[in-house]
């Protein structure tokens, strides 16, 4: 659905995005992670046709953002990290106004507004003034605004920024529902634990470059880092040191270390290969009493991916 190829954006001497490539399949929720100034917002604005790239190519639904920006905009809804609202409008009036600007016929707007308010759980607030809404409600209203032309793709820049825990949970569940409706979503956030629960794909950006990208499973358990497994032997003739020495001769194992009564090993293997390795160890006389995988968190992956990276002295962008 979204293809970014060798994308670069320069601001005078500052490179905000540096030869970045990424692919977002249709129906995915793609989490874009990075420090402030890493290049996330610039990338999202270019995808949304709000900025021109210096070089590279971006296609949304098969349409080039530079060649066919009008067609891209019809496919896409963009929600910035700060979305202004008209406080002197009622909730339904706010959506009706934006539906009119998108060319929705007057006869269709009442039903569409009601449907959107039901979707974002604001139907009881339809006659309230926007100014009276909580920040979380305003964020949901702005998301409804983004949906008035029924876009296939949503670009959401920090939609949970400043929300309390309950409002963040409500936003997360809403985004999951939108995915079940067939929407493709690109979202940036600093709340990594919530992205791990929400996203199907992850991209980690640092210094304008894409340093890690793939499905959530590939990022958390990918072969580039290997899978960390922990084994414990039942009492017997074989010791943890014997097991570590055996694993060191296994082609799938990068290295094994004895930690007290257990052995930890980094293994490049899928589930079937891990099961085969365990079976061979048992057949060779190693009484494996427990075998478990130690999973990395998204926070740990982010710290590993950005370790040693330096941000430029000049700020790149807002996020």
Compact description:
The protein has 319 residues and is α/β, with parallel strands linked by helices. It has helices at residues 40-47, 69-75, 91-101, 109-119, 135-146, 165-180, 192-198, 216-221, 240-248, 271-283, 298-306, and strands at residues 2-11, 14-24, 29-33, 55-60, 63-64, 76-79, 153-157, 184-188, 201-206, 209-215, 227-233, 253-259, 262-267, 288-294.
Helix content: 25-40%
Mean pLDDT: 89
Shape: elongated
Task: Compute the number of strand runs.
Answer: 14
Q: Which structural class is indicated by helix and strand composition?
A: alpha/beta
Describe the 3D structure.
- The chain has 319 residues and is of the alpha/beta class.
- It is 34% helix and 28% strand.
- The chain is built from 11 helices and 14 strands.
- β1 and β2 form a beta hairpin.
- α3 packs across α4.
- The two termini are 24 Å apart.
Write the layout of secondary structure elements.
Blueprint: E1 2-11, E2 14-24, E3 29-33, H1 40-47, E4 55-60, E5 63-64, H2 69-75, E6 76-79, H3 91-101, H4 109-119, H5 135-146, E7 153-157, H6 165-180, E8 184-188, H7 192-198, E9 201-206, E10 209-215, H8 216-221, E11 227-233, H9 240-248, E12 253-259, E13 262-267, H10 271-283, E14 288-294, H11 298-306
Parallel strand pairs: 3-8, 3-9, 6-7, 7-8
Antiparallel strand pairs: 1-2, 1-4, 4-5, 9-10, 11-13, 11-14, 12-13
Helix pairs in contact: 3-4
What key attributes describe this structure?
319 residues; alpha/beta; four-stranded antiparallel beta sheet; 28% strand; disordered C terminus
């Amino acid at each position: 659905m979204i293809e970014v190829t060798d994308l670069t954006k320069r601001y005078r001497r500052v490179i905000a995005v540096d030869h970045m490539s990424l692919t977002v399949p249709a129906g995915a929720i793609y989490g874009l992670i990075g420090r402030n100034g890493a290049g996330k917002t610039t990338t999202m604005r270019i995808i949304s046709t709000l900025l021109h790239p210096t070089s590279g190519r971006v296609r949304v639904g098969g349409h080039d953002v530079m060649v066919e920006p009008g067609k891209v905009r019809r496919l896409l809804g963009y929600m910035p990290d700060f979305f202004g609202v008209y406080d002197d409008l009622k909730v339904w009036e706010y959506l009706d106004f934006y539906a009119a600007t998108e060319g929705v016929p007057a006869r269709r707007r009442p039903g569409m507004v009601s449907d959107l308010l039901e979707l974002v759980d604001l139907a009881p607030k339809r006659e309230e003034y926007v100014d009276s809404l909580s920040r979380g409600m305003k964020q949901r209203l702005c998301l409804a605004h983004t949906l008035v032309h029924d876009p296939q793709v949503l670009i959401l820049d920090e939609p949970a920024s400043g929300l309390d825990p309950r409002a963040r949970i409500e936003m997360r569940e809403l985004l999951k529902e939108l995915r079940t409706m067939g929407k493709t979503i690109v979202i940036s956030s600093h709340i990594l634990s919530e992205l791990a629960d929400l996203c199907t794909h992850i991209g980690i950006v640092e210094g304008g470059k894409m340093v890690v990208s793939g499905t959530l499973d590939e990022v958390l358990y990918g072969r580039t880092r290997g899978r960390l497994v922990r084994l414990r032997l039942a009492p017997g003739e074989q010791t943890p040191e014997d097991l570590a020495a055996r694993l060191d001769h296994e082609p799938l194992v990068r290295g094994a270390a004895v930690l007290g009564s257990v052995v930890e090993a980094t293994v490049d293997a899928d589930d079937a290969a891990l099961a085969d390795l365990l079976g061979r160890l048992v057949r060779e006389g190693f009484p494996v009493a427990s075998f478990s995988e130690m999973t990395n968190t998204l926070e740990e992956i982010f710290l590993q991916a950005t370790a040693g990276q330096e941000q430029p002295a000049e700020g790149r962008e807002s996020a």
